[in-house]
Amino acid sequence: MTVASLLTPDSVVAGIKGASKKQVLQDLSGQLARISGLPERAIFETLLQRERLGTTGVGQGMAIPHGRIAGLHRLVGLFARLQKPVDFEALDGEQVDLVFVLLAPEDAGADHLQALARVARLFRDAKLVQKLRQTEDPAALYAILTADIANRAA
User: Fold this and answer.
1) How many domains does the chain have?
2) Is the backbone of residue 93 left (phi > 0), alpha (psi -120 to 50) or beta?
3) What region, left, alpha or beta, does residue 54 occupy, with left being phi > 0 and alpha being psi -120 to 50 degrees?
């Protein structure tokens, strides 16, 4: 599984505004509703419910909100670069400016966990993360994400 298989050019966004984690999740839920065809409210509730279990802020300014949701037939990802960092209650205390949301079908099983692991590995690449932070254009962000994946897969 590659991160590129989770993203389309329409699922990479930049300049997301929000003064709080909840506002950011609401905005990203709207983006995901357009991509997936699922109700925005159902996506938001799924992401919020997961956050109640513990923060998805993985540290170093990055978060991976995720959840399983009824009505979804494949894994769906969305990458967002926030306009300003927000408090995601990350374990390291750093505010988050890069977010990769992952939605999975209710019965995704190991595929969901593999996708989460793949995204976490992506975020451990310091050079890639630096490029993402220096880029504001969604098409360029998509190119960075997918080029990196293609190079690693080769």
Assistant:
1) 1
2) left
3) left
Is-catalytic flag, 66?
yes
Model confidence pLDDT, tens digit, residues 22-50: 999 999 999 999 999 999 999 999 999 99
Query: Per the residue annotation, which of 66, 81, 112, 118 is the catalytic one?
Result: 66
Amino acid at 120: A
Please tell me the predicted confidence (pLDDT) of residue 150: 45
Q: Read off the pTM.
A: 0.92
Q: Find out whether 89 and 21 touch, Cβ atoms under 8 Å.
A: yes
What CATH number is attached to the domain comprising 37?
A: 3.40.930.10
When pLDDT is cut at 50, 70 and 90, the band that residue 116 belongs to is confident
Q: Domain containing 23: what range?
A: 3-153
The two structure tokens encoding residue 66 = 């995720």
**Mean pLDDT of the residues in the chain:** 90
> Coil, helix or strand for 85?
strand
> What is the chain's length?
154
Beta-strand runs (E) in 40-152: 57-59, 62-63, 66-69, 76-86, 96-105
